[in-house]
Amino acid sequence: MSERKAPLDGIRVLDLSRVLAGPWCSQNLADLGADVIKVERPGMGDDTRGWGPPFLKDADGNDTSEAAYYLSTNRNKRSITIDIASPEGAELIRDIAKQSDILIENFKFGGLKKYGLDYESIKAINPKLIYCSITGFGQTGPMAPLPGYDFMIQGMGGLMSITGERDDLPGGGPQKAGVAVTDLFTGMYATVAVLGALQERHRSGLGQHIDVALLDCHVAMLANQNLNYMTSGVAPERAGNAHQNVVPYQVFAASDGHLIVATGNDSQYRAYCQVMGRPDLADNPDYVTNRQRLTHRVALIKELEAIMKTRTRDDWISSLQKAGVPSGPINNIQQVFDNEQVKSREIWKTLPHPVAGTAPSTANPIRYSDTPIQYRMAPPLLGQHTDQILEELGLQGRK
């Protein structure tokens, strides 16, 4: 039996995106086996190439030109440099688009039209192309022409109103997430959208335009918090490290540090009470069900906090995990990669790199049984594959 090919083997992606949301999408597609051609500005490239320190170091410990941020989103791609603002460059993009299956771009609304690279122009020369536009606010609506960035969308889209400590406590106030979650979610939604359009093309033989907006994706990802508001008419507020809908589900201070206890159902709560040596808290009519625990949250948490301070963090975690109660430490990133579970899943990857010798990479979390993710290439140097790509497409000499 012949070896099965990667899911997107034979699919060509023309990637005009930069920074995070678009490259996150195209890296997903590249990991699934697509040939992703990353188009970059001559002499400059993707903005994130300069978003350092830290930079990847060579064998002598010296900084290279490759910023860690850029490395995080551009694995398994090939880089070509083209000046799309020039008539020759725009024409070259159109010629590559004729031979591509997917185009991803995150220019401002209408930004590619002046170059003849908008959807309608590309559709006229390749009606099978799936064209994905990622913008701050989408292709319609009063804010469509405005630029949008992750941080401002986290504020505008409501996340910062429910993230961080309560306003009445020390350190309270708006807080952004520690990574650009809006960009990352948008990149994931764009990936799903592209794969759906690719499947639909099997039936119709035609491509289509995909309109993905940061604000739309951000609001969508608020999930249960949206429904908390939509069903009650009351906007959720910041709750610190507690859960809006589940109790107990939060950070507790032990005698020597902090841990998370996350009881997702009543049976886990009862097991938690047994570990604490307080079965009476499980039988108390005020605390029997999650609904009752929510109603009496303040009184219950006061009791739990006092008990949790009587033992060490690791002692609690060991006992709780043996009892099937979800719990764990609050790790920094170094501790994450030192974790035996993370090591066993081989989440830290090392790829050959043409300048540094090797480059680290975070494994794709998708685990296929028969077509595993292949880590073919480290993020490319600027323009590393220009000649190779042009030759493959029969476009030699077109720079």
Automatic annotation (TrEMBL):
Keywords: Transferase. It holds the Pfam family CoA_transf_3. It comes from the Bacteria. One of its GO terms (molecular function) is CoA-transferase activity. This is CoA transferase. InterPro entries: CoA-transferase_III_domain, CoA-Trfase_fam_III, CoA-Trfase_III_dom3_sf, CoA-Trfase_III_dom_1_sf.
